Structures are given as C-alpha cells and as structure tokens.
Amino acid sequence: MKAIQYERYGPPDVMQLVDLPDRVPATDEVLIAVRAVSVGPGDCKTRSGSLDGSHPASFPKIPGRSGAGIVVALGAQADFATIGDLVCFSTPHTESGSCAEFVTRPRDQIGRVPPPLDAVAAAAVGHPGVCAWIALVETARVEPGMRVLVQGGSGTIGAQAIQLAKHLGARVSATARRKNAAYVERLGADEVIAFDEGGDAGRARFDVVLDTVGGETHRRSYAALRAGGVLVYLRAAPIDETPARTDVRTLLARIDYRPEILEKVLALAAQGVLRPQVGLTLPLAQCAEAHRRLEARTHGLGRVVLTVP
Predict the structure, then answer these.
(1) 8 Å CB contact between 84 and 71
(2) Which of 195, 265, 283, 297 lies in the 20 to 30 Å Cα band around 119?
C-alpha cells in the first residue's frame, strides 16, 4: 500500500510517499480503505518535534490522527461493523497514522458515518467536532442561556464550538481577525470580537470561555469570566497552567475518540446542526504541501483534507 512516512523530525519535506506491506486486521479490528484524511495543526507540531515532550513519535512514523473510509475486511471477532460501511476513525499518536491507503482500527476508535455525509465531510468534522463536544458538553457543561466566549472562532475547532454552543442554547461570542468576521458570523456567533483591531472580550461577563489558542490568549481569558465561571482549554500554544483567579474553574478538555461521542458529532453533522468546514483538499501524495500551507496559514478557513483515490 501507499503511505506517507517520515523517519525524523523536521520540515514538511521529511515526509515521503512510500510503499509499505498491506495491512491485515487483528481479530478485533476492521480493515479500512481510507478515502479522506484530516490534517490539522497538531499533525504539523508532531512532525516538527514540538510535541516530543508530551507525544514523542516512534520512527518511522505515518502522520495523521483521523480520517474516513470504507470497511473492506473484518477480523474474526469484529462483529461491530459490516463490509461496505463508511466509517470515521482515529489513530492515536502512539500508533501508525491515517495518511495511508489502508488502516486497521478496533471498535473503540471508529464511528459509522450516516448519510448524507461523505468521507471528506466526515473527516473534516470528526476531530474538531469531538474536541468541541468534549470541551463544551462534558467539561464545561454548557446549558441554555449561558454566555460562552470561543477564543479562536475561525479555527476548525472554534468553528464547530460556535455551532455546538448555539445548538446547546448558549449566547455565543467569538474572537477572530476582522477579515474572518463574516465567516464567524455565518457559523452563528452572536458577537464577533476582532482582536487584531484591539477588540476586547470585556470583563466578568461570560459563564464559559473556551480557549483553543493558548499562550497570551489563555492569560487574558480569565478577565472575561464572571465569578464562578469556567475556563476550559485545549493544549495549543504553551500556557502557564497556574490559575490566575481562585473564583473560577480552569479545566483541561481531555480529548479521546470514544465512538459514542464521535457518532453523536456525525449525527449532528448529518442533521445540518454542525456544518463541516473544508478549507482545502489535496491528494494524499501532497501531504507535505498540506503541512506547508497550514504552517503558512494559506490553506483558507476550514479543515485541510487529503483525499485517497
């Protein structure tokens, strides 16, 4: 099979298209013919080595943390799927990734894709949608009427978080660059705060702040929370994890690909509640170009998706 692989940390060009032995599913796994691969900032950070402290790679490494494809073979005890199923899947940092013609996955790392979603849409919404769900539903426990601020509203996770928070009945504000304000409004944000024009979230007015950015944005997020509010964050840029206030809660959204959450996200996407955001599609062989575009921020708004013929 064809796959993308790299043998050391470095720039995008360390990744090469190679021929590898065909995959054979274990007893409790399915074999998936990959049709679409999601590429995000975390993939670039893993390849560059900037996540080596928390998520060290084992070389040679196939990149990619998620994707979608067709089940083409079953292990002897893999009764949780049927040949021909379109599924969305995850591949943990510690295993071979999704940038390949075939992957094998166990039950706890796949979810059926309902119609009318196709593989590209499923790959685009799966990972950011799961991140948004865990952050807002499971960690922050957003309820109707809450005021929610999404830091980084034009990013792929931020885009799904805006839509999900609106679905949950919250009033949603989001930060973004002025040039992306119309895009964020189309996602459903009630208020767009243009941070590049000095826009400020204000003080003590939000019940929940979702920080998808990190760094200085994380520090500034505390001021926007009311007493008793929740700052929920994802590991993006490095942050000082010492809480800046004692009258709010600071919670890390711990992301995992439980099939029940993935399937809830896919169901919402099939219903039109969560709209997959695709910024750029490229063939699998151009994985290095996808990483270059992501790092240069020239990929457009939405997820980068690699397609596999």
Answers:
(1) yes
(2) 297
One-letter amino acid of 142: V
Considering Cα of 9, then 15, then 19, then 20, what sign does the dihedral take?
A: positive
What residues have CB less than 8 Å from 223, skipping those under 6 apart?
201, 203, 204
> If pLDDT is split at 50, 70 and 90, which confidence band does 67 have?
very high
Q: Using CA atoms, how far apart are residues 125 and 274, in angstroms rounded to an integer?
A: 8
Confidence label for 264 from pLDDT (cuts 50, 70 and 90): very high
Judging by DSSP bridges, how do beta strands 191-194 and 171-176 pair with one another?
A: parallel
Of residues 236 and 278, more confidence is placed in: 278
| Strand 249-252 with 278-283, pairing | unpaired
Q: What is the DSSP string of 151-165?
A: ETTTSHHHHHHHHHH
DSSP category for residue 100? B
The dotted CATH code for 127-252 is: 3.40.50.720
Class of domain 2-117+276-307: alpha beta
Helix H or strand E segment including 73: strand 66-74
Q: What's the pLDDT tens digit per position in 71-120?
A: 999 999 999 999 999 999 999 877 889 999 999 999 999 999 999 999 99
